[in-house]
Amino acid sequence: VQLQASGGGLVLAGGSLRLSCAASGRTFSDYAMGWFRQAPGKEREFVASISWSGGGGGSTDYADSVKGRFTISRDNAKNTVYLQMNSLKPEDTAVYYCTRYSGSFATTRGMAYWGKGTLVTVSS
Asked: Is the pLDDT of residue 25 over 90?
């Protein structure tokens, strides 16, 4: 499985960006996907996750710090997961990584594959 994240860049505080993560493989829809981020000098932290799409699923979860500002979604036809980021703050500056979980639902230690990150810089 290969994951390719894109969409990062430099944006002013209050602005928006949409990150994309394209995944290889034919069973993309069966697995939960997620986004993490790592700011300089800090540990990687959870941002958002979305479960598989079967059975009316696609449930989402967010870190408290991004609730109401970020939205995770997936397009199974394109094997792609997105992270729409609105009302960006300087503290959102980080390298953002997408991950595919080992199962249909996101679990704390269930990240199985990681993509290379994409840098998001929010200036004040």
From this structure: no
